[in-house]
Amino acid sequence: MKLNRLAPLAAAVAAGALALTACGSDSNNDSGTSTVAGTTDAAGGVKCGGKGELRASGSSAQKNAMDQWVNDFQAACPDVTVNYQATGSGAGIQTFLQGSTGFAGSDSVLKPAEVEQSKKVCEGGQAINIPMLGGPIAVGYHVEGVDSLVLDADTLAKIFDGKITNWDDEAIQKLNPDASLPGTKIQPVSRSDESGTTDNFTQYLAAAAPDAWTHEPGKKWPVAGGQSADGSSGVSAQVKQTNGAISYFELSYATSNDIPTVRIDTGAEAPVEATSANASNAIAAAKVTGTGHDLAMKLDYATKADKAYPITLITYQITCDKGNKSDTLPAVKSFLGYTASDKGQSVLPGLGYAPLPAEIAGKVRTTVASLS
Fold first, then answer.
1. Domain 9-133+286-297+315-370 bears CATH identifier 3.40.50.11270
2. Is 168 annotated in some ligand binding site?
3. Where in this protein does the record put region Disordered (predicted)?
4. What pLDDT score does 46 carry?
């Protein structure tokens, strides 16, 4: 596919008054599932399709959005129970590749080996990356007496690599000349599970601070020692209760736990705050690198554009383009069709996420409708 420059996210979402249609299906087959599940109606909602339980797992970054989506979808489509487990991106992909779930949530795209492995599960097809939301990875901290903090990529890299160990370090003080920084020991907290959030955060460090961060990016945290916890909920809880702690997690976890977040000095006109709008500015400059129905995207983690928050992720739903299980396919198309609809996307800003750009949202709906 030719690389595409994405439209600004401000055009992504229609008016919030759009209504999800009441549950109903057309052209039912003998199993009672809809053959048109996943197609959008004029109001931006989705027709219901399928029956029974739809199992999925993966990204904890999207859990707060998924909880809202599941509640709204099931209120309109009570014949389907969506069971999403926030096990982390790595575990979610592996469960999907074992054929145990209808789709997986992941904050990073599939590796070539995973695509190849998926052909054993996707009869006649393969797994594809379907972007569904974006958002900032906040760097949350707990330092008593410090309510505002600016850090840059180089300093963050040295903090998380154990090279800067106290909060009154000269490098931190230089970025915060008016702050009264204590000599408290820095307690970096990383993810203990394989995580797409870790993958995105380490990609940012490698791109924006290549001299200070020499580790390979990936889902597994590369630095030995230090504190760790499972999932975004685990690391944010650890920061909340530990003076001197710092970690990385989605903005919604910082907001819900009342955890202050770092503003990032990118070299832009002013340090950039972790907000949905600033993440949208970064995602709007992303490029589509997938081919066919695969919509993998590439972010510029080293951006210096004004008001573009650099530590941003895109969360994908992973499923088969062809060869999906016939008993869950209608529900998969119906549910993912809803999450990509105007109504589904409109709930994201209020939860601390960034909706898809209009151009990509349209491509996602086309891809979801084509699943077979």
1. no
2. no
3. 176-198, 215-235
4. 64
